[in-house]
Structures are given as C-alpha cells and as structure tokens.
Amino acid sequence: MTEFKGPKTGSILEEEGLIHSNDIDRVLAIQANVTDDKSCKDRRLFGSILCDLNLLTPVETYQVLKKNNKLISLQDRLVSQNLLPATRVAQLSDRSAETGISFLGLLLEESQVPKPVIQQMLLDLFHIPLRSISDMVFSEKKRKNLSSIIPADQAARHQIIPLVLKEETLLCAITDPDALCFIAELDKKFPQYRFTPVFVSFPGFSWFFKILYQKCFDPQKKAEKAQDRPAEHTQDQSAEKTRILPTVTDFFVKISDPVREKDKIIQLYETYEQTRHQIGCTVQPGRKPAFLQFIQKQHQAVIKNYRCRAVAFSFEKQGDRIMILAIPVKQEA
What we know:
Helix content: 40-55%
Structural class: alpha+beta
Strand order of the largest sheet: 1-2-3
Number of helices: 16
Oligomer: single chain
Order of helices and strands: HHHHHHHHHHEEHEHHHEHHEE
C-alpha cells in the first residue's frame, strides 16, 4: 500500500482503530530489516506489510490512506523511479480524463513500461495483482447473481466487474485503484461476501463487461460525467450512433492459426473498413495486405506474451476512431 512515512501512517491507522501500537512496532522492525543492497526508496511500504501480516486488507488500507492524503499514486511512482517523464505522465492523465479509460489502462496499452514492471508496482503500491481476464471462465448460471451484486450502471461508473463467485468470495476486476473505495461500500452492503480485487487491462474489462451484461461498455459516458458536461448529440448524430453500435459491439472473431484462417482476417478487415466508413472515415483502397500482416503480427505477439491458444479480435469505438481489440483466449468462456 502507499504512503510517505511509516510512523505517521501507523498513527493514522491506529487512530482509526484498525491496528494497535504493537503492530506499528512489528512493521517498523520489518522495514528496518532491509538488506544492504536495497536503497531507501526500495523499502517495503508500511501498508503493504500490514496486508502481508493479514492485519489489514488492501481495501481498508487504501480507503484510510486516501482519506488522509497519504497515497502515492501510480503516476508519482512512475516519475520518481524515472520510468516515464513527468510530461508523458501528464499527457496520459489528460487522455484518461478525456476518454474515460483509466490511467492504468492507457499505461498498459502503450507498452512504454514493461508489463512485469507495472505488475510489481501495483503489488508494491496497492498489494493487488494484475491478472489476465482470459484466465476467467464465465458461468452463464451465475449471470443473474453477479449482475445483481454489481449492476451494469455501477460497473460502468466505477470500472469494476464481478468475475467469479466461489462460496462467499467474490473476485472483482478493476482498472483503477479508486474502485477500491467503491468495494468498501459493497463490503458494507453485502457483509456475507468477501470482495477480492484484481487489476485487469482495459480491453479485458470491456470484453468481460460485454459478456456479463450483454452490452458494450462506453468509457466516453464516464468521461463526460467526470468533466461535468452533458453529451451533445444532434438528431442525425444520435441516429448515426444507433446505426453504428450494433456493428462495433456485435462483431467477434477468434483466430487460432492466422495462416489457415485467412478468411477470418479478411472478414475482420471488411467489417473494419465498413465500420470506419459508417463513422465518416475515408476508405483507403489497397490496405488489405498491410492489414493481414498487422493482424498476423498482433496474433503472434499475444500468443507469445500470454501463451494462449487463440486470440479474439473485436472492435471498440473510441471517439472518432475504431480500435481493434486483441484478447488472449486460454479457455472457453
């Protein structure tokens, strides 16, 4: 978990009645026992150690530290460890506010910081792992129960989605650390469940959102609410959006072998160009060979990185662009 100085953080958590003074001493002793080859900035964080000791949950720690302005954000850590320049972090933050896609989602998308580094940072800061959503198996029988605990509107607003309910533990996927505050509310509302969060990529979240709620997740709606401005559409724009969305959200192709399944890539290309034309983009002839190479390259990269058996390709509308989503498929959902 994230904070600036151990003793002050310990006092805050003690005042909240979450830990005792002897717990503070235990954590400080662990922090002091740092090996010589580690610098001060690599020291284990106070809240993270409390989670390791099962004295607090990541949700409890995050909520208290946020309330007391003791959090170190992912943005701050990227800059302090010289992983990204402050200007680039600011650009990603601005883009996050404009698109409604979380900062973490954009960070994973652009791949300037290696994924293992991001995974370790999330564990260090929030004590929460980054998982591949393709590892999850969706059960049609659990749809009603899962969607009743977290309805679609709340899932979209907080970018949180229930993945698996096993006995009394509900595994939830989040794309932004602030969703932990909403999990704290759910914990009070549903005391019979234990909520366990995991971070997931934005494409993975969108993919599972569509499977569970049977409709597409639109991050732009979240961005418009965050900026406190109403969505302005003329009658023609509304009609155009109604006409476009079925094509964007309903198309889905799973490819195991791009060489033998070339016809699927051609179908993907034709649907892609048709969808771009619908939103007013100029159709550029002669791009099919380059598109085939692009899909084959992306397929190879996803298979290599995730060691999966197939890749699911679909579309998502982001502003005036049609994005191609490539989701690793490890088992049937």
